[in-house]
Design brief:
By secondary structure, this protein is mostly helical. The protein has one domain. About 75% of the residues lie in helices and about 0% in strands. It is globular.
Length: about 260
Amino acid sequence: MAINDSDLERLRQAKNLLENPGIAARATGALGRPVEALIDSLPQGAQETLHHAVEVSLQKALSVAVSSLDASVKEVPDNWLHKIGVAVTGGIGGFFGLAALAVELPISTTLMLRSIADIARSEGESIGSPESQLACISVFAMGGQGAETAEAMATSSYYATRQILAQSLNTAAQYIAENGIAEASAPAIVRLIAAVGSRFGVQVSEKLAVQAIPLIGAAGGAIINTLFMDHFQDMAKGHFTVRSLERKYGEAAVQQAYQAL
């Protein structure tokens, strides 16, 4: 079945969101300073703290995803309400700096997951299913730098990310469907967290670099967290628009149209 004009325009809008610059570019535009240079100025040991915080945050988010997300349908997601929530946590993180990351990041990640799920439901996802819940988690891997193969990058960064995560997501969904709970120590869950975390961690390091700027304070932390939420809301809107079109037309047809735009 050929993709009609209105759906093709939806796909075009989704691609514009998914292939646009990530959090580093947005933060650079807001602050007037290249974020990549700021990462080098992070204190020694920051990467170890970052890695642990990312892992814990994704474990907590995954626990939320498979246990307590509301499966009711919502036509309009509460994007601004969730932005206010992360702005508050970002203000705390900006005030206390690196020391607050272990507390602030899990809260911010869970709030972002709630927003991602809101957007997923607005695009017709059956959010009560493990497959849809894990599709929400996968959004944290989108829009950042990654170690894609040259073959994957020949298509697009969005489809490259989906290709990289596909096996981990399928295995984790099967595990959750069979066991009914996401044990963090289960090999399927460990592999998924590692796959998502390796990409999410790059974006968190960009966020942390901005929050570590001397004198940035609570206001700057709130700004960077709002940009962070805005980024993942865009990724979610694009991703779940594509998935809704795939349910209608089939994955191969939508991917071919996406690449042709």
